[in-house]
Amino acid sequence: MSRPYPDDGAYQQQPPPAPPLREPGQVTSGRASVPAPAPADPFASVPAPGPADPFAEGRRQAVAEPVSRGTAAPVVTSAPLARPGTFPPDQPGGPAGSEDDDRPRDRTGPSGRTSRLRIGWHAVARAGLRRMTAGQPAPAGILIGRDQRQTPVPLPLFAPEPVRVTLVGGVWAAQLLLFRAFAAGVRVVVVTTEPPAWTGFGERATGQQHRLTVVAAEPGGPYSGTAQTPLLTVYDLGLSGPMTSPPLGPWHSQLTVLRQLDRAGVPALQEASLVVLQRLGGDEATLAAAALKLRPQSAQLLQSMNDDMMALIGDGDDRYLFLNQTGIEQQYIGPPRR
Fold it and tell me: Quick one: 224 exposed, middle or buried, by C-beta within 10 A (0-12, 13-18, 19+)?
Protein backbone atom coordinates (compact mmCIF):
# COMPACT_ATOMS: atom_id res chain seq x y z
CA MET A 1 0.00 0.00 0.00
CA SER A 2 1.51 3.23 -1.04
CA ARG A 3 1.68 6.10 1.46
CA PRO A 4 1.40 9.70 0.39
CA TYR A 5 4.75 11.37 0.47
CA PRO A 6 5.30 15.04 1.03
CA ASP A 7 7.11 17.19 -1.40
CA ASP A 8 10.58 16.08 -2.18
CA GLY A 9 11.90 19.42 -0.96
CA ALA A 10 10.93 18.63 2.65
CA TYR A 11 13.41 15.77 2.77
CA GLN A 12 16.19 17.47 0.99
CA GLN A 13 19.35 17.37 3.01
CA GLN A 14 20.56 20.71 4.32
CA PRO A 15 24.09 21.53 3.22
CA PRO A 16 26.65 20.99 5.98
CA PRO A 17 28.11 24.11 7.62
CA ALA A 18 31.04 25.59 5.82
CA PRO A 19 34.36 24.63 7.35
CA PRO A 20 36.41 27.41 8.96
CA LEU A 21 38.59 29.28 6.57
CA ARG A 22 42.08 28.02 6.91
CA GLU A 23 44.83 26.72 4.78
CA PRO A 24 44.35 23.15 3.66
CA GLY A 25 46.17 20.84 5.96
CA GLN A 26 46.30 23.34 8.92
CA VAL A 27 44.44 23.60 12.24
CA THR A 28 44.02 26.77 14.28
CA SER A 29 44.77 26.75 18.01
CA GLY A 30 44.23 29.46 20.61
CA ARG A 31 47.76 30.78 20.18
CA ALA A 32 48.94 30.31 16.58
CA SER A 33 48.26 28.37 13.41
CA VAL A 34 50.06 25.04 13.52
CA PRO A 35 50.23 22.74 10.48
CA ALA A 36 48.34 19.51 11.09
CA PRO A 37 50.04 16.23 10.21
CA ALA A 38 48.58 14.43 7.19
CA PRO A 39 46.77 11.20 8.06
CA ALA A 40 48.61 8.05 7.07
CA ASP A 41 47.04 5.83 4.39
CA PRO A 42 47.72 2.20 5.25
CA PHE A 43 46.54 0.96 1.84
CA ALA A 44 48.56 3.21 -0.44
CA SER A 45 52.04 4.61 -0.25
CA VAL A 46 51.24 7.48 -2.53
CA PRO A 47 47.98 9.37 -2.01
CA ALA A 48 45.72 9.46 -4.97
CA PRO A 49 45.25 12.86 -6.46
CA GLY A 50 41.79 14.22 -5.64
CA PRO A 51 39.61 16.41 -7.75
CA ALA A 52 40.51 20.07 -8.00
CA ASP A 53 38.89 22.31 -5.37
CA PRO A 54 37.20 25.19 -7.20
CA PHE A 55 36.95 27.22 -3.90
CA ALA A 56 40.54 26.85 -2.73
CA GLU A 57 41.64 30.17 -4.17
CA GLY A 58 38.78 32.02 -2.50
CA ARG A 59 39.59 30.48 0.89
CA ARG A 60 43.24 31.47 0.57
CA GLN A 61 42.23 35.07 -0.11
CA ALA A 62 39.86 35.09 2.89
CA VAL A 63 42.67 33.97 5.19
CA ALA A 64 45.22 36.36 3.76
CA GLU A 65 42.98 39.43 4.05
CA PRO A 66 42.72 39.51 7.89
CA VAL A 67 46.46 38.96 8.16
CA SER A 68 47.13 41.93 5.94
CA ARG A 69 44.87 44.07 8.13
CA GLY A 70 46.71 43.17 11.35
CA THR A 71 43.97 41.02 12.91
CA ALA A 72 45.86 37.78 12.94
CA ALA A 73 46.02 35.69 16.10
CA PRO A 74 48.42 37.16 18.71
CA VAL A 75 51.85 35.71 18.90
CA VAL A 76 52.84 34.16 22.20
CA THR A 77 55.75 36.07 23.77
CA SER A 78 57.88 35.67 26.85
CA ALA A 79 56.49 38.83 28.56
CA PRO A 80 55.47 38.24 32.21
CA LEU A 81 51.78 37.85 32.92
CA ALA A 82 49.94 40.65 34.73
CA ARG A 83 49.23 39.96 38.37
CA PRO A 84 45.62 39.98 39.54
CA GLY A 85 44.35 43.48 40.25
CA THR A 86 47.13 45.28 38.34
CA PHE A 87 45.89 47.14 35.32
CA PRO A 88 47.47 49.95 33.35
CA PRO A 89 45.88 53.33 34.01
CA ASP A 90 42.87 54.32 31.92
CA GLN A 91 42.16 50.72 30.90
CA PRO A 92 38.74 49.17 31.27
CA GLY A 93 38.46 47.48 34.63
CA GLY A 94 41.59 49.18 35.99
CA PRO A 95 41.96 51.94 38.57
CA ALA A 96 42.09 55.62 37.84
CA GLY A 97 45.27 57.34 36.81
CA SER A 98 47.91 58.68 39.13
CA GLU A 99 47.14 61.34 41.74
CA ASP A 100 49.23 63.85 39.81
CA ASP A 101 46.90 63.59 36.83
CA ASP A 102 45.09 66.93 36.56
CA ARG A 103 42.23 65.59 34.53
CA PRO A 104 38.91 65.57 36.42
CA ARG A 105 37.76 62.12 37.44
CA ASP A 106 34.68 60.77 39.10
CA ARG A 107 35.05 59.47 42.63
CA THR A 108 33.46 56.20 41.60
CA GLY A 109 34.00 54.23 38.42
CA PRO A 110 31.93 51.60 36.64
CA SER A 111 33.13 49.00 39.12
CA GLY A 112 31.69 51.00 42.03
CA ARG A 113 35.06 51.46 43.73
CA THR A 114 35.72 54.70 45.56
CA SER A 115 39.02 56.48 45.16
CA ARG A 116 41.29 56.71 48.16
CA LEU A 117 40.37 59.59 50.49
CA ARG A 118 43.06 61.78 51.97
CA ILE A 119 41.95 63.02 55.39
CA GLY A 120 43.72 65.98 56.91
CA TRP A 121 44.85 67.89 53.84
CA HIS A 122 43.37 69.34 50.70
CA ALA A 123 44.93 70.52 47.48
CA VAL A 124 44.41 74.10 46.33
CA ALA A 125 45.61 75.89 43.23
CA ARG A 126 48.30 78.50 43.70
CA ALA A 127 46.08 81.18 42.22
CA GLY A 128 43.45 80.45 44.87
CA LEU A 129 46.08 80.26 47.60
CA ARG A 130 47.23 83.80 46.84
CA ARG A 131 43.68 85.06 47.35
CA MET A 132 43.35 83.48 50.81
CA THR A 133 43.81 85.76 53.81
CA ALA A 134 43.70 85.12 57.55
CA GLY A 135 40.94 87.04 59.29
CA GLN A 136 39.97 87.65 62.87
CA PRO A 137 38.15 84.76 64.58
CA ALA A 138 34.42 85.27 65.02
CA PRO A 139 33.03 85.99 68.49
CA ALA A 140 32.06 82.95 70.52
CA GLY A 141 28.60 83.03 72.01
CA ILE A 142 26.49 81.08 74.45
CA LEU A 143 22.84 80.24 73.95
CA ILE A 144 20.90 82.56 76.19
CA GLY A 145 17.41 81.53 75.05
CA ARG A 146 14.87 81.44 72.22
CA ASP A 147 12.61 84.22 71.01
CA GLN A 148 8.88 84.00 70.29
CA ARG A 149 9.63 82.34 66.93
CA GLN A 150 11.73 79.68 68.73
CA THR A 151 14.86 81.04 67.03
CA PRO A 152 18.03 80.47 69.11
CA VAL A 153 19.53 83.73 70.36
CA PRO A 154 23.24 83.68 71.27
CA LEU A 155 24.99 86.02 73.67
CA PRO A 156 28.36 86.99 72.07
CA LEU A 157 30.30 86.93 75.30
CA PHE A 158 33.84 86.20 74.06
CA ALA A 159 35.80 87.93 71.30
CA PRO A 160 39.37 89.06 70.56
CA GLU A 161 38.30 92.51 71.75
CA PRO A 162 37.06 93.04 75.33
CA VAL A 163 33.33 92.53 75.93
CA ARG A 164 31.36 94.11 78.80
CA VAL A 165 27.94 92.75 79.75
CA THR A 166 25.69 93.95 82.60
CA LEU A 167 23.06 91.72 84.16
CA VAL A 168 20.22 93.14 86.24
CA GLY A 169 19.02 90.13 88.19
CA GLY A 170 19.87 87.67 90.89
CA VAL A 171 22.67 85.18 91.45
CA TRP A 172 20.54 82.46 89.86
CA ALA A 173 20.54 84.23 86.47
CA ALA A 174 24.29 84.87 86.67
CA GLN A 175 25.02 81.22 87.45
CA LEU A 176 22.80 80.10 84.57
CA LEU A 177 24.91 82.16 82.16
CA LEU A 178 28.12 80.77 83.66
CA PHE A 179 26.83 77.21 83.53
CA ARG A 180 26.33 77.59 79.78
CA ALA A 181 29.61 79.45 79.35
CA PHE A 182 31.57 76.58 80.90
CA ALA A 183 30.81 74.56 77.76
CA ALA A 184 32.97 77.04 75.81
CA GLY A 185 36.00 76.29 78.03
CA VAL A 186 35.83 79.58 79.94
CA ARG A 187 37.82 80.27 83.10
CA VAL A 188 35.93 82.46 85.61
CA VAL A 189 37.05 84.82 88.39
CA VAL A 190 34.21 86.03 90.65
CA VAL A 191 34.70 89.23 92.66
CA THR A 192 31.89 89.29 95.20
CA THR A 193 30.84 90.71 98.54
CA GLU A 194 28.94 87.48 99.23
CA PRO A 195 31.36 84.54 98.76
CA PRO A 196 29.01 81.85 100.20
CA ALA A 197 26.67 82.33 97.24
CA TRP A 198 29.45 81.20 94.88
CA THR A 199 31.43 78.74 96.95
CA GLY A 200 31.43 75.28 95.35
CA PHE A 201 29.50 76.32 92.26
CA GLY A 202 32.44 75.77 89.89
CA GLU A 203 33.18 72.31 91.26
CA ARG A 204 29.54 71.25 91.01
CA ALA A 205 29.13 72.58 87.47
CA THR A 206 32.43 71.34 85.97
CA GLY A 207 33.89 68.75 88.35
CA GLN A 208 37.12 70.80 88.43
CA GLN A 209 38.53 73.19 91.01
CA HIS A 210 40.45 75.63 88.81
CA ARG A 211 37.61 76.68 86.47
CA LEU A 212 36.10 79.18 88.92
CA THR A 213 37.93 81.27 91.50
CA VAL A 214 36.18 83.38 94.13
CA VAL A 215 38.01 86.48 95.43
CA ALA A 216 37.00 89.35 97.70
CA ALA A 217 39.16 92.08 96.19
CA GLU A 218 39.25 93.37 92.68
CA PRO A 219 42.08 91.73 90.72
CA GLY A 220 44.71 93.73 88.91
CA GLY A 221 45.32 93.48 85.23
CA PRO A 222 45.05 93.57 82.42
CA TYR A 223 44.64 89.83 82.08
CA SER A 224 43.88 88.03 78.86
CA GLY A 225 42.56 84.67 77.77
CA THR A 226 42.78 82.70 74.57
CA ALA A 227 40.28 81.58 71.96
CA GLN A 228 40.39 78.09 73.48
CA THR A 229 40.20 79.29 77.11
CA PRO A 230 38.51 82.70 77.38
CA LEU A 231 38.62 84.61 80.66
CA LEU A 232 35.50 86.01 82.34
CA THR A 233 35.55 88.29 85.39
CA VAL A 234 32.26 88.53 87.26
CA TYR A 235 31.61 91.52 89.54
CA ASP A 236 28.86 90.70 92.03
CA LEU A 237 29.01 93.78 94.24
CA GLY A 238 25.35 94.35 95.06
CA LEU A 239 23.89 97.59 93.72
CA SER A 240 26.79 98.89 91.66
CA GLY A 241 29.62 97.81 89.48
CA PRO A 242 33.35 98.17 90.15
CA MET A 243 34.62 101.55 91.27
CA THR A 244 36.73 101.96 88.15
CA SER A 245 36.46 100.27 84.80
CA PRO A 246 39.07 97.48 85.00
CA PRO A 247 41.39 96.99 82.02
CA LEU A 248 40.61 93.99 79.86
CA GLY A 249 42.88 92.08 77.49
CA PRO A 250 42.09 89.93 74.43
CA TRP A 251 39.49 87.21 74.98
CA HIS A 252 38.72 88.75 78.38
CA SER A 253 35.11 89.62 79.18
CA GLN A 254 33.43 91.35 82.10
CA LEU A 255 30.03 90.48 83.57
CA THR A 256 28.61 92.95 86.11
CA VAL A 257 25.73 91.67 88.24
CA LEU A 258 23.34 94.23 89.74
CA ARG A 259 21.07 92.62 92.34
CA GLN A 260 18.79 95.68 92.24
CA LEU A 261 18.79 98.62 89.84
CA ASP A 262 19.03 102.13 91.24
CA ARG A 263 20.94 105.24 90.29
CA ALA A 264 24.24 103.80 91.51
CA GLY A 265 24.04 101.08 88.87
CA VAL A 266 23.19 103.33 85.90
CA PRO A 267 26.89 103.77 84.86
CA ALA A 268 27.25 100.00 84.61
CA LEU A 269 24.27 99.92 82.22
CA GLN A 270 25.62 102.69 80.03
CA GLU A 271 29.16 101.29 79.81
CA ALA A 272 28.05 97.81 78.77
CA SER A 273 27.82 96.75 75.16
CA LEU A 274 25.03 94.28 76.05
CA VAL A 275 22.50 94.35 78.90
CA VAL A 276 20.57 91.33 80.17
CA LEU A 277 17.51 91.95 82.33
CA GLN A 278 15.29 89.75 84.44
CA ARG A 279 11.81 90.93 85.40
CA LEU A 280 12.02 94.45 86.88
CA GLY A 281 9.91 96.39 89.31
CA GLY A 282 8.17 99.62 88.39
CA ASP A 283 10.96 101.98 89.47
CA GLU A 284 13.62 99.71 88.01
CA ALA A 285 11.86 99.52 84.65
CA THR A 286 11.46 103.30 84.47
CA LEU A 287 15.15 103.83 85.31
CA ALA A 288 16.31 101.19 82.81
CA ALA A 289 14.16 102.60 80.01
CA ALA A 290 15.61 106.08 80.58
CA ALA A 291 19.24 104.94 80.88
CA LEU A 292 19.09 102.67 77.83
CA LYS A 293 16.77 104.95 75.80
CA LEU A 294 14.19 102.22 75.29
CA ARG A 295 10.83 102.57 73.60
CA PRO A 296 7.89 103.59 75.84
CA GLN A 297 6.25 100.16 75.77
CA SER A 298 9.51 98.47 76.84
CA ALA A 299 9.05 99.60 80.45
CA GLN A 300 5.78 97.67 80.60
CA LEU A 301 7.24 94.56 78.95
CA LEU A 302 10.13 94.49 81.43
CA GLN A 303 7.62 94.30 84.29
CA SER A 304 5.48 91.54 82.76
CA MET A 305 8.12 88.92 81.96
CA ASN A 306 7.86 85.47 83.51
CA ASP A 307 10.51 83.96 85.77
CA ASP A 308 11.88 81.87 82.88
CA MET A 309 12.36 84.90 80.61
CA MET A 310 15.08 87.51 80.05
CA ALA A 311 15.42 90.60 77.92
CA LEU A 312 18.54 91.17 75.80
CA ILE A 313 19.18 94.85 75.05
CA GLY A 314 21.90 95.86 72.62
CA ASP A 315 22.86 96.24 68.97
CA GLY A 316 19.82 98.48 68.44
CA ASP A 317 17.32 95.69 69.13
CA ASP A 318 15.29 94.62 72.17
CA ARG A 319 14.68 90.89 72.36
CA TYR A 320 12.58 89.04 74.91
CA LEU A 321 13.67 85.44 75.33
CA PHE A 322 12.54 82.21 76.92
CA LEU A 323 15.42 80.54 78.78
CA ASN A 324 14.35 76.92 78.10
CA GLN A 325 16.19 75.64 81.16
CA THR A 326 17.27 72.00 80.94
CA GLY A 327 16.87 69.33 83.60
CA ILE A 328 20.62 69.33 84.31
CA GLU A 329 20.56 73.09 84.86
CA GLN A 330 17.65 72.80 87.26
CA GLN A 331 19.50 70.08 89.12
CA TYR A 332 22.60 72.22 89.70
CA ILE A 333 21.19 75.76 90.06
CA GLY A 334 17.50 75.23 90.79
CA PRO A 335 14.33 76.52 89.07
CA PRO A 336 14.05 80.10 87.70
CA ARG A 337 13.83 82.90 90.27
CA ARG A 338 14.90 86.50 90.76
Answer: middle
